[in-house]
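Sorry to interrupt, but I need a hand with the structure work. Please put the record directly below this note.
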Amino acid sequence: MVTFPGVIRSGSEAKLCVSLLKPEENLQLTISLVYSNQNRTLLQERTEKEFHRCLDFQAPDSDSVQEIQVEAQGENTHLIKKRKVKFISYNPLTIIQTDKQIYNPGQTVQFRIFTVDLNLKPIDETYKLVAMQDNRMNRINQWINATSTHGKILQLSHTLNPEAAVGSYELFVETSKQTIKEYFQVKEYVLPKFDVKLHKPKTVRANEEEVKLGVCGRYIHGHPVQGNVKMGLCKTMPVGIYYPYQYHTPLCVNRIAVLNETGCVSEMFPISFFIRSSEVYFMPQSLHFTVSVTEEGTDISMERTENVFLTYTIGSIKFIDLPEFFEKGSVIQAKVKVEFSKGTPFPYFKVVVQHDLSQPQELTTDINGLAHFIIDTSLAISTSIYVSAYASFTSQVGSPFIFESAFKTLQIKSKESPEKASQLVIKSLEEPLKCEEEISVTVQYTIAGETVESGSVTIVCLVSSREEIVYNGYKNIEVKGSDGVVEGEVMFKVPVRARMAPKMEFLVYCVPPSEIVLAASRTFQIEKCFENKVSLQFSPTTAVPGEENTLQISAQPGSLCGLSTVDQSVRIMESGKHLDADKRFLVKKTLYRSQLSLVHCVASVL
């Protein structure tokens, strides 16, 4: 078996992994890269022993679709298999960064331009054109064939006219391969004295009686704000033929409060007020949480608005003791359980169980939220039975609440079939995974229905990240047992590196004696970390206006550092627009966007 990514970056150091499983004779194994009738040999080896190995090879520089060819040649064996692989190049990413996102007329716009590769490392670049345009698309400045003058960062500036028109301005950068735009605002403004933070859940369920919403006000120096608060929670109905005219007016609950000594206050808002039983399909909606904080003594106000997602799905229906397999003629005894999202059972709820062998059954749950049902399989005419359970129509009439339905397909069990199915299961881990630590990933295996009395199976593990195989390993397990079922678990120790962030794909597979490939995969999220650790410290940590201060930066030798200083008040006005760890990983996603749909595509050749 040969495993490799379906998409490989052109010109990169690529990797593929080979598993030769239980050869029955001495074989000549040849792996080649085939393109336009030309063969490039990647591996050629003669062996009669089982092995598992990964090898590196240089990917072609040009973009192309080629084939990985695997040939096994022996006295009684001659097999040739091919699978396609796509080699694709990625343009470096050019970033434009302004010192802030909003300027008064007459202020100086400081900005820098830099270009990074796939590993976010700065590279040299000549910018054919850098231009600035006002809100009427008039070009007000330009730079031709600009190159960096400070390391690999190009730093430029432009002073706005004191009479500059307010509106959205554009920075335009053209390289030999791409065009990039960045926008900033010009408007007359006064820096805010304090910031307002909202405290709310992301989602609230429609059956909750109340939701707690809060707000805090902080001055730039961190002290709490004292003043009054107006809070409002509103639901805006979409305009359409399904909604009566009176629903077009927003539904609102308003509160007035006073900030406490910590600069915070919380209020309870009723959810039932926003629920209308005649709403069609009870579509999920957003509640708008709006807050206005007015500073005591000055009447200066700050406003914030954020959304709270309202969902009408408040619980689920689940099957209990419903087997994966059935024997024809048997009577299956199972249960359905209805529970709220927090796990509390829902008693006396009417639920319908439906399957292929009888008419739908309407059941009522007991005090534990359970209802029993049976399936007589003697009438089964196919090899499977599709079973579903959903809320009865009588339970839903006049109710806006939704319970997730349950679905399951039962497979017929032949006399030779085992009670359990062969499978590999990757156990979950606490996520996100921490960088620069070794994790233990447990894989549970079930090998069922194998006819051999003894033997072994190799479970192979591959970890990929950013379109590369970054780790591989294997474990051997014994396959024998009088009951025909072998169960257990193996553990793989995987080092988590910063270059793997923000996620890794964990793949395991094996080929039992029946030669039916078993495989499982799982995606693990990794904390947003970087290989280059940077620290920044002020000394002293607090200072008064006019006082001298020392700024110390520590990073790896040879690091390229870009600094900017801006009033904290400006950050309040442009919240969420500066470059941070989240946006840097969004940059990585952009760089790899062409392969995201294919990163799970792993070609295997037997």
